[in-house]
Amino acid sequence: MSEPLPVRLAADLAVLAEQHRWLIQDLWAAQAVGVVGGEPKCCKSFLALDMAVAVASGKPCLRRFPVAEPGPVLLYAAEDALHVVRRRLEGIAAAAGVALAGLPVHVITARSLRLDDEADRARLQATVDALRPKLLILDPFVRLHRIDENASGEVAPLLGYLRNLQRRVHVAVCIVHHAKKGAGRIRAGQALRGSSEFHAWGDSNLYMRRTPDQHLVLSVEQRAAASIPALSLELRAGDGDRLALDVVLDRAPSTEPADLRPADRVEEILAAATQPISLSDLRAACHIRTASLCQTLNDLLRDGRVRKNPNGYTLARPPL
Length: 320
Known about the structure:
The protein has 320 residues and is α/β, with parallel strands linked by helices. It folds into two domains: 15-247, P-loop containing nucleotide triphosphate hydrolases (Rossmann fold, 3-Layer(aba) Sandwich), CATH 3.40.50.300; 262-315, Winged helix-like DNA-binding domain superfamily/Winged helix DNA-binding domain (Arc Repressor Mutant, subunit A, Orthogonal Bundle). The protein is built from nine helices and 13 strands. The protein has helices at residues 44-57, 82-96, 118-131, 152-169, 188-191, 197-201, 262-272, 279-286, 290-302, and strands spanning 22-24, 28-29, 33-38, 73-77, 105-107, 135-139, 172-178, 204-210, 216-222, 231-237, 243-247, 306-309, 312-315. The chain has a nine-stranded mixed sheet, sandwiched between helices. The protein has a two-stranded antiparallel ribbon with strand order 1-2. The longest helix is centred in the middle third of the chain and has 18 residues, at 152-169. It is globular and about 65 Å long.
């Protein structure tokens, strides 16, 4: 006879004190996994490095968000030369008012790291076991594998490995991930490139985008806490032209996607739907002329991005 699973009355579950809920107040939950996402040139890496300096130093992230429990950080920057990583960290440390030399930011210097390779996973796990970091940053995810990012069945095991690492070592995990082209016109979570597994996986997700006037906007999404309003950011030069992100307090960010194309509008509505949507209901939701909607649907059907069945239209999902 099988042994039953352990259970506990809901009223007996542990209560987490407020000061232990956050790694970075309002930005990143304690021991959370998640994504820093956005299109290219949206300063995703600068934001991730700002998180690294904040956690390692105990100084507020972006000079605004306190760190509850400082500690070591482990970083793998796959796309940037090591001297570039150092210079960026120096600039952010200077903006935070600390010296880089005193910070426990550990940079993995291996030429490659593959999460779909068993030997590399074992080496990463051994490194995390040795350093016991508070935060692990992997930037960007696309350089960490050779899988099909659109296939849930291939993405899920890699994200599952990182989730298991987080639970076993109690480390927060941040992956930097690209958004689709034109992502500024659709909702942030749906803009992440590849499988919907990325959006579903994150406990804390941060999204960077540029508005039509090239302003940077940071949107925050939390699984288990209220999300703060979007923030305007700016990449500013300090001493010696060293760069760091800063919050712009006198500029209200635009929280609405600008100039949604018909195809983006259709995909956004279908992504939020729990059942097929008829043509008439879709037209009412999209506020698009019937002729334009039909042409848009034909294009999406041709490209395999939308499916049609007798009950209506659904968003095409990656194969499981």
